[in-house]
Specification:
single chain
């Protein structure tokens, strides 16, 4: 689905920002998810859930807000 491609690309593009401040292991501990989960996401073997996306953004100091609109 298009939303899965978008989520994958979004997180993949955040990888350099995360790695400029933390190791993957440190960041995973910081946001409360298993490091293997982040490695799978960054190697494009796993599509992150909305909850994981939210944790990643919070870990980087951003609040992720989603809205739904009827089209």
């Amino acid at each position: 689905a298009a939303s899965d491609v978008y989520k994958r690309q979004l997180v993949y593009n955040l990888k350099p920002l995360i790695e400029s401040k933390y190791t993957i292991c440190e960041f995973a501990k910081l946001i409360g998810i298993h490091r293997i989960t982040l490695y799978k996401i960054f190697s494009r073997k796993m599509i992150p859930s909305i909850e994981i996306l939210h944790k990643i953004f919070l870990g980087l100091g951003y609040d992720l807000k989603l809205t739904a609109q009827k089209v």
